[in-house]
């Protein structure tokens, strides 16, 4: 074994898990696809970019400094392609394939965006809402010059403010929720006064720029030939279904749209640990104990990949998982474990009302899925439409994997990450429940890898070709 | 549950489904019992290769006829299962592989497979995508591939059309012998039938156990890799002399890399884990054969199960000592030959003399448990 | 579309054979978008135009060829002289 624990994902959860475990003396390997730690929330700006100060940048810089000063074996810019039992991880890095082994593995792989399809959502110029935060925070780029910001949840105001700050124009904010929905959350939001104040600051800035806000509206279609040129809006009801009422058409060269996040839970799924469907947590999530232990010995999960709870809970959950590893490895006594977990457990508990409120705003609305037109593409990789998914049901497909075989939906290079949640919802509306429909079976590699990188250089004679089959 | 079926088939892969289909078309009232959805184990996740050059010599006559069935699947199955008939090449890169290839291709040719040996230069003319390091190639015009993941869809429609009572997601847990036939115990009740066919692939061993028959079946865990869609890099089915590679590009652009490199798993858990070193080995072999493939990306890798008897020949025929009970499966490269062998069994069950002999399991039961076949 | 606030050197890359000015170290998606190159590939069955979508390495919509190898533009910083080829229908 090369390490005591391997951690996948260097965002707020994974990095804190790494620090907590390393502080107890464990030998930790921390992997991430990005060249810098921080995850999506605390993403580092590209080298050479001078971006204005922000709480995210400060938070990320502090974390990166702590990691640099720690004993954590940082493996950044790695494409992890294989994770095997007991645990062995293979990743492609600057020097080709590297293999590490450890008796414990923490999955802290974060979440990816959910966009509920609408006609035109595949046009260039239409990007995710979280995608827009990456452009603004890390790439120093605007999504476009005239941007419609649509969807639901707190990212709407954050992205719109970021665009305005960088000199772009926000044509409109389009929120599935209404002002009343936000007001109802105030008591929960007030448990995090700093974050609430920040949200209020965004609202003030946007108000000052007179950015129009269309509450209780959704995107009916993005229109354009080779790229988005217009965005058509329509009013929606509290469940997200379109209602009668005047449509609004806006001229824009970009649309950023997001309907919450989906946990990137492929590691627990790969190991077939117990999972449960939790709409508020973003979908299927691994069943965990209070410290992030999954149903498989040695496998832990924390952060948004284990169920959406946001950055505050992710930091605490990461510390708890790191400490649980240390305890289970014998590096922390039961007493020391109880003592050290007190603070992060309390922090997680304190952050819950806020994170629950936010997660609630971003949960998938079934009525919105029901409104996807039949000819709209759901699986972007394979151009599979809603009608084709439903035709697979008519042909007897009763779970996601069977539907995938009938249609190729989810067989493309994103490995079902962008269609799985919505396709599951479409099928579940016919079959009866998301639990019956299940999830796509997780398969390696965790990300597509070029064959050239995988095979490296070799001599034909050295390939360990197995014995031939009987003649 | 007062219906007594003429035939209950347990196991809804290619073997069970084909047998059920032809029995129903022959006039029998048939129930097909499958613990999951149809063709979702080996029959749905295998590499789909329909080649003679990886087929066991003894199975060549069957595989040739099965190939013809696959080639006109739209006629008897009502769906083409994405079958493409094309040339096949088995490559030799070393002197030792040349010897192996010459011997193996010769044996298969004797059995009826139209395989010729051609030079590397000629092979390049057949398949411009292959490496110029090829010294000798087995060239066969009877080759091709199906889109295995469509198998379940195709059979489902056909079986329903033929009036088969399809019992998917219905695990069977045992069989009682009764005066008038058999009572199959399932999760949703008892299914009664005058005859039974056990067609459970690697699960044939426990199924035969229900009837007191001990037939060891080995479970192979075959690793497979598929690339994302790439521009055309090949037009034939490509393998290597020792059979440890199968490679083809589908019309939509993905390339499936197989060959039977073994992963970790068993009958109970399925293919649970892939061996990264063996993925790399298989991929190296593939790129050595088709150099342009190196620019593609791996989209997905998985493992599928394959059943193997002690002599690696099929278990297909009547179950000794139990009238009206049959077994059908464990066919090496079973996806290729399965439909024909299962159809032969259906013929036998319908009272017709099969056109080619079946593979009764008596030979495996009599020899005791000393020998596990020529490994 | 990048902010003009950085002092990163201007370099030349090639896109489908034509030269394109970009800033060293900026993300390839940004350099392409600034020149109006939003379409990075076409979808496999409909041939519909597709561009960068998730910007975090997950969706694969921005996969193209960089110096012959498939790379995700949203994870690829610009280097002087890099040869970029957008992919057609695959």
Automatic annotation (TrEMBL), chain A:
Residues 378-454 form the SoxA A3 domain. InterPro entries: BFD-like_2Fe2S-bd_dom_sf (IPR041854), FAD/NAD-bd_sf (IPR036188), FAD/NAD-binding_dom (IPR023753), Metab_Enz_Cyan_OpOx_G3PDH (IPR051691), Opine_Oxase_asu/HCN_bsu (IPR017224), SoxA_A3 (IPR041117). Gene3D superfamilies: BFD-like [2Fe-2S]-binding domain, FAD/NAD(P)-binding domain. Pfam families: Pyr_redox_2 (PF07992), SO_alpha_A3 (PF17806). Keywords: Oxidoreductase. GO terms for molecular function: oxidoreductase activity. It comes from the Bacteria. The keyword Ribosomal protein does not apply. PANTHER family: ANAEROBIC GLYCEROL-3-PHOSPHATE DEHYDROGENASE SUBUNIT B (PTHR42949). This is Oxidase.
Automatic annotation (TrEMBL), chain B:
Residues 6-348 form the FAD dependent oxidoreductase domain. Coiled coil: none annotated. Transmembrane segments: none annotated. InterPro entries: FAD-dep_OxRdtase, FAD/NAD-bd_sf. Keywords: Oxidoreductase. Pfam families: DAO. One of its GO terms (molecular function) is oxidoreductase activity. The keyword Isomerase does not apply. SUPFAM superfamilies: FAD/NAD(P)-binding domain. GO terms for cellular component: cytoplasm. The keyword Oxidoreductase applies. This is Sarcosine oxidase subunit beta.
From TrEMBL, chain C:
InterPro entries: 2Fe-2S-bd_N, 2Fe-2S_ferredoxin-like_sf. It comes from Azorhizobium oxalatiphilum. This is (2Fe-2S)-binding protein. GO terms for molecular function: iron-sulfur cluster binding; oxidoreductase activity. Keywords: Oxidoreductase. The keyword Oxidoreductase applies. Signal peptide: none annotated. Transmembrane segments: none annotated. The keyword Oxidoreductase applies. It holds the Pfam family Fer2_4. It comes from the Bacteria.
């Amino acid at each position: 074994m090369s390490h005591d624990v391997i951690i996948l994902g260097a965002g707020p959860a994974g990095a804190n898990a790494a620090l907590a475990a390393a502080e107890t003396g464990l030998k930790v390997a921390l992997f991430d696809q990005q060249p810098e730690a921080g995850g999506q929330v605390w993403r580092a700006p590209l080298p050479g970019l001078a971006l204005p100060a922000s709480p995210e940048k400060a938070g990320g810089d502090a974390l990166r400094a702590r990691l640099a000063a720690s004993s954590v074996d940082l493996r950044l810019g790695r494409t992890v392609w294989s994770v095997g039992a007991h645990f062995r991880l293979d990743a492609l890095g600057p020097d080709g394939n590297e293999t590490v082994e450890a008796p414990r593995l923490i999955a802290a792989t974060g979440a990816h965006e959910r966009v509920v399809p609408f006609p035109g959502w595949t046009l260039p110029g239409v990007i995710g809402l979280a995608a827009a935060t990456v452009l603004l925070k890390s790439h120093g780029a605007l999504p476009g010059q005239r941007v419609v910001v649509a969807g639901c949840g707190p990212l709407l105001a954050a992205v719109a403010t970021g665009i305005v700050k960088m000199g772009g124009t926000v044509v409109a904010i389009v929120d599935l929720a209404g002002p009343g929905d936000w007001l109802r959350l105030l008591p929960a939001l007030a448990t995090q006064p700093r974050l609430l104040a920040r949200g209020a600051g965004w609202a003030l800035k946007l108000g000052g720029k007179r950015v129009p806000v269309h509450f209780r509206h959704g995107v009916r279609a993005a229109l354009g030939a080779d790229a988005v040129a217009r965005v058509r809006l329509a009013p929606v009801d509290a469940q997200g279904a379109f209602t009668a009422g005047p449509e609004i058409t806006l001229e824009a060269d970009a649309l950023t749209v997001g309907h919450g996040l989906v946990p990137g839970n492929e590691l627990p799924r790969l190991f077939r640990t117990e999972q449960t469907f939790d709409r508020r947590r973003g979908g299927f999530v691994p069943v965990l104990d209070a410290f992030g232990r999954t149903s498989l010995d040695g496998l832990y999960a924390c952060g948004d990949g284990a169920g959406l709870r946001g950055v505050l809970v992710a930091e605490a959950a990461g510390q708890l998982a790191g400490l649980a590893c240390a305890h289970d490895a014998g590096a922390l006594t039961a007493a020391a474990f109880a003592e050290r977990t007190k603070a992060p457990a309390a922090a997680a508990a304190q952050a819950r009302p806020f994170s629950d409120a936010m997660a609630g705003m971003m949960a998938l609305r079934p009525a919105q899925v029901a409104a996807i037109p039949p000819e709209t593409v759901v699986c972007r990789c394979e151009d599979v439409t809603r009608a084709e998914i439903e035709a697979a049901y008519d042909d007897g497909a009763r779970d996601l994997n069977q539907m995938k075989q009938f249609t190729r939906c989810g067989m493309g290079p994103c490995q079902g990450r962008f269609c799985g949640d919505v396709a599951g919802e479409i099928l579940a509306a016919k079959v009866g429940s998301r639990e019956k429909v299940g999830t796509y079976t997780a398969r390696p590699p965790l990300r597509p890898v070029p064959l050239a990188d995988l095979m490296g250089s070799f001599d034909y004679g050295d390939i360990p070709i197995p014995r031939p089959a009987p003649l | 549950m007062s219906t007594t079926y003429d035939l209950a088939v347990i196991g809804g892969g290619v073997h069970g489904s084909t047998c059920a289909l032809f029995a129903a078309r022959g006039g029998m009232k048939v129930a097909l019992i499958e613990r999951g959805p149809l063709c979702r184990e080996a029959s749905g996740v295998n590499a789909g290769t329909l080649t003679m050059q990886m087929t066991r010599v003894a199975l060549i006559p069957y595989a040739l006829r099965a190939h013809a069935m696959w080639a006109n699947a739209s006629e008897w199955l009502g769906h083409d299962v994405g079958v493409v008939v094309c040339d096949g090449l088995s490559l030799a890169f070393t002197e030792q592989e040349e010897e192996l290839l010459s011997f193996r291709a010769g044996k298969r040719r004797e059995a009826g497979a139209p395989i010729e040996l051609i030079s590397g230069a000629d092979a390049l003319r057949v398949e411009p995508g292959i490496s110029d390091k090829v010294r000798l190639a087995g060239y066969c015009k009877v080759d091709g591939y199906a889109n295995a993941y469509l198998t379940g869809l195709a059979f489902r429609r056909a079986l329903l059309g033929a009036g088969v009572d399809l019992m998917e997601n219905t695990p069977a847990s045992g069989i009682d012998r009764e005066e008038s036939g058999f009572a199959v115990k399932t999760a949703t009740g008892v299914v009664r039938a005058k005859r039974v066919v056990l067609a459970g692939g690697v699960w044939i061993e426990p199924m035969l156990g229900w009837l007191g028959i001990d037939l060891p079946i080995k479970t192979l865990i075959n690793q497979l890799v598929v690339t994302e869609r790439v521009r055309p890099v090949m037009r034939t089915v490509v393998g290597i002399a020792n059979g440890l590679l199968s490679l083809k590009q589908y019309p939509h652009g993905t390339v499936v890399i197989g060959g039977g490199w073994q992963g970790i798993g068993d009958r109970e858990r399925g293919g649970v884990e892939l061996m990264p070193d063996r993925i790399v080995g298989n991929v190296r072999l593939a790129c050595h054969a088709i150099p342009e493939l190196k620019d593609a990306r791996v989209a997905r890798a998985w493992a599928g199960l394959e059943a193997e008897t002690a002599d690696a020949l099929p278990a297909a025929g009547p179950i000794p000592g139990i009238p009206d009970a049959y077994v059908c499966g464990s066919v090496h490269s079973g996806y290729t030959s399965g439909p024909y062998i299962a159809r032969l069994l259906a013929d036998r069950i319908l009272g017709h003399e099969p056109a080619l002999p079946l593979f009764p399991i008596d030979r495996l039961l009599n020899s005791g448990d000393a020998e596990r076949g020529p490994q | 579309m990048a902010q003009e606030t950085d002092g990163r050197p201007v370099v030349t890359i090639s896109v489908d054979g034509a030269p394109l000015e970009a800033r060293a170290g900026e993300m390839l998606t940004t350099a392409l978008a600034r020149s109006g190159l939003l379409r990075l590939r076409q979808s496999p069955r409909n041939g519909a135009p597709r561009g960068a979508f998730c910007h975090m390495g997950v969706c694969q919509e921005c996969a193209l060829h960089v110096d012959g190898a498939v790379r995700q533009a949203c994870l690829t910083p610009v280097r002087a002289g890099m040869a970029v080829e957008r992919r057609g229908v695959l």
